[in-house]
């Protein structure tokens, strides 16, 4: 089998049907019959994820700078830029509030955190010894008492865009890229053009490398599911079933809503150009990689193929994937309600509005973070409501390998839907 | 009657070739030691903490030491948590104005005054009453005793660890002793020390491991 045949085969596997009929059964069988291999399979899966994220830093840097430059025109030459920027920002705000409201609605309906006695027992056993607080009364205090919140804000401040990129400081790269993009939008176009041209080449190269690496995604998915199947505590999954169900329903609902939006905001001619539903491709890609950024090439290529403005497509896809993080917003709202239910907080309309806003703020604060690294942001919301942080984090970390995939899928499909809404038609 | 102390004292009596007669009429822990000093019985045992006050008419023979511990309502902890280090958080809890339940007339009253000067200390007649105040009537924020008693609560009812968290004082131990009257036969003291040397001084982790059936989580 040569590379092209393997690539074609891998691309065919990226469909719901093939995922359910081929990838999932193979992964579950491997996980069931070879539980001792779970650690190795996890290592292979995580290594492949790291490989796929290899072009992420240049992609993020170039995409954000190009996007910001496309969004704003401070020279006053091109007013359509500012019109698009306004449309994108308003749509982002609309999508953000809609996703948070959906998370709130789902969690009020499914009620995560209201546990059966068996569920409470499983969770209690899982927490035994692990959340104990150890105190040394006579030890002198040498620990740094700097609040973690201050550290978070420090991570936002860019130092030097080259060194930030070299150190993989994603949050600093985003803020640095936004400043660079704003600077480029302010200088005359003939001076900005060479840098933009260079960044567009970097972007095209990063997208190409990512596309080729994604050929490995079915292998990665099999390794991760098989590894997770034999290593994650099924008892905890059962106990936290309502929480997982809430996120799963949110993920499927967003896929459905995004499909409706895509259909509504594309013409029949545009859809006829495509051989398959791109939302399915994006959904599966995010599910299989756990990275919404991996969906960037598919979103951009699909919308460019149907004739949407390439600059607008790149800007909206990168901004929504990097900054809006709708998957994290929905998830944070759900976890806040989960904590309310677990700790018997009386839910009032005011509390619900606060939960919605805290979910949005902490969800957006995860920009640039992936995987389990996004979870501490929820701690800020829990601290706001004076709810215990360590037990909640311990529980959500336990099931995060699964939930992370669902969060990424929501961010991926919502980015595709948002880009379809805001990008102009009829530009070839 | 069963338990580590019962096995220990039965073993000692066996070595001496005498029968054990248990007296359980004392009002509280202090009274048990006081009565031993008066000569009401030959020795006092029953997870008795060692304090200078108790040494006026008796002398202690250490056989266990347990870390002191609190079981605190997580909501109370969350109200103090400012994202600081765990050790600092533990100290903040000790310096807070929490309402802490203790067994009245026990050494825990003086420990509480020493380590939790600002806390509101509430004494109850016995340990079940202390637990009831935390879990049922919600009158208090925390309960205070040694690690074996605190951990036993959540080992036997793991679901409680969702709402309550143990705080273990790594460097403050409750020294548990057998008390002999000061006017007891000096040789008796030496024999007891010789006997206890075989057992060794046990920590709370060892005790919980040795008596795992008693402490292990319920199924």
Nearest-integer average pLDDT of chain B: 87
CATH superfamily of the domain at 3-50 and 89-131 and 226-422 in chain A: Sodium:dicarboxylate symporter
Tally of strands of chain B: 7
Look at the helices and sheets of chain A and give the structural class: mainly alpha
- Domain count of chain B: 2
Q: What oligomeric assembly is this protein in? A: heterodimer
Give the SSE order of chain B as H and E letters: HHEEHHEHEHEHEHEHH
Rg of chain A: 22 Å
What is the class of the domain at 3-50 and 89-131 and 226-422 in chain A in the CATH system?
A: Mainly Alpha
Strand content of chain B: 25-35%
Put simply, the count of helices of chain B is: 10
Low-confidence region ranges of chain B: none
**CATH fold label of the largest domain in chain B:** D-Maltodextrin-Binding Protein, domain 2
Characteristics:
heterodimer, A: Proton glutamate symport protein, B: 219 residues, D-Maltodextrin-Binding Protein, domain 2, seven-stranded mixed sheet, 7 strands
């Amino acid at each position: 089998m040569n590379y092209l045949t393997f690539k074609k085969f891998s691309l065919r596997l990226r469909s719901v049907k093939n995922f359910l009929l081929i990838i999932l059964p193979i992964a579950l069988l491997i996980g069931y019959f070879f539980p001792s291999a779970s650690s190795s399979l996890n290592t292979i899966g995580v290594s492949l994820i790291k490989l796929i994220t290899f072009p992420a830093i240049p992609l993020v840097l170039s995409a954000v700078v190009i996007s910001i430059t496309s969004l704003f025109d401070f020279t006053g030459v091109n007013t359509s830029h500012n019109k698009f920027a306004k449309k994108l920002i308003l749509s982002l705000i609309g999508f953000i509030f809609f996703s948070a409201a959906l998370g709130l609605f789902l969690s009020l309906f499914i009620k995560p955190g209201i546990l059966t006695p068996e569920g409470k027992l499983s969770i209690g056993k899982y927490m035994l010894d692990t959340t104990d607080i150890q105190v040394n009364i006579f030890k002198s205090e040498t620990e740094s008492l700097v609040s973690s919140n201050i550290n978070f804000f420090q991570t936002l401040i860019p130092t030097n865009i080259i060194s930030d990129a070299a150190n993989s400081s994603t949050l600093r790269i985003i803020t640095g890229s936004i400043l660079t993009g704003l600077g480029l939008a302010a200088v005359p176009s003939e001076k900005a053009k060479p840098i933009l041209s260079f960044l567009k080449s970097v972007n095209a190269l990063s997208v190409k490398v990512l596309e080729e690496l994604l050929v490995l995604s079915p292998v990665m998915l099999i390794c991760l599911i098989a590894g997770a199947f034999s290593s994650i505590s099924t008892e905890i999954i059962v106990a936290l079933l309502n929480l997982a169900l809430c996120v799963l329903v949110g993920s499927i609902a967003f896929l459905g809503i995004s499909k409706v939006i895509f259909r509504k905001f594309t013409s029949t001619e545009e859809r006829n150009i495509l051989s398959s539903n791109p939302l399915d491709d994006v959904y599966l890609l995010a599910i299989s990689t756990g990275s919404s950024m991996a969906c960037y090439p598919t979103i951009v290529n699909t919308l460019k193929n149907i004739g949407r403005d390439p600059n607008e497509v790149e800007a909206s896809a990168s901004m929504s994937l990097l900054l809006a993080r709708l998957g994290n917003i929905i998830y944070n709202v759900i976890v806040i309600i989960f904590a309310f239910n677990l700790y018997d907080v009386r839910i009032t309309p005011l509390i619900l509005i606060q939960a919605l806003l805290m979910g949005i703020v902490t969800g957006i604060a995860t920009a640039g973070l992936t995987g389990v690294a996004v979870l501490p942001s929820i701690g800020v919301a829990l601290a706001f409501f004076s709810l215990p942080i360590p037990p909640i984090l311990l529980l959500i970390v336990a099931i995060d390998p699964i939930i992370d995939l669902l969060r990424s899928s929501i961010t991926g499909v919502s980015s595709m839907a948002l880009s379809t809404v805001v990008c102009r038609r009829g530009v070839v | 009657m069963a338990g580590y102390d019962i096995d220990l004292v039965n073993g000692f009596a066996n070595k001496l070739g005498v029968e054990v007669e248990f007296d359980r009429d004392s009002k509280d822990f202090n009274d048990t030691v006081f009565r031993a000093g008066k000569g009401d019985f030959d020795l006092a045992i029953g997870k008795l903490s060692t304090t200078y006050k108790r040494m006026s008419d008796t002398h202690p023979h250490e056989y266990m030491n347990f870390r002191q511990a609190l079981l605190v309502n997580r909501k109370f902890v969350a109200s103090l948590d400012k994202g600081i280090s765990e050790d600092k958080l533990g100290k903040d809890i000790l310096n807070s104005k929490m309402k802490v339940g203790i067994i009245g007339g026990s050494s825990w009253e003086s420990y509480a005054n020493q380590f939790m000067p600002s806390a509101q200390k509430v004494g109850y007649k016995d340990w079940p009453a202390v637990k009831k105040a935390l879990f049922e009537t919600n009158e208090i924020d925390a309960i205070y005793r040694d690690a074996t008693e605190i951990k036993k609560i959540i080992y036997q009812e793991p679901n409680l660890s969702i709402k309550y968290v143990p705080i273990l004082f790594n460097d403050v131990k409750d020294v548990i002793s057998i008390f002999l009257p000061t006017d007891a036969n000096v040789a008796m003291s030496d024999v007891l020390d010789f006997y206890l040397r075989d057992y060794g001084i046990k920590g709370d982790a060892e005790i919980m491991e040795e008596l795992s059936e008693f402490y292990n989580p319920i199924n």
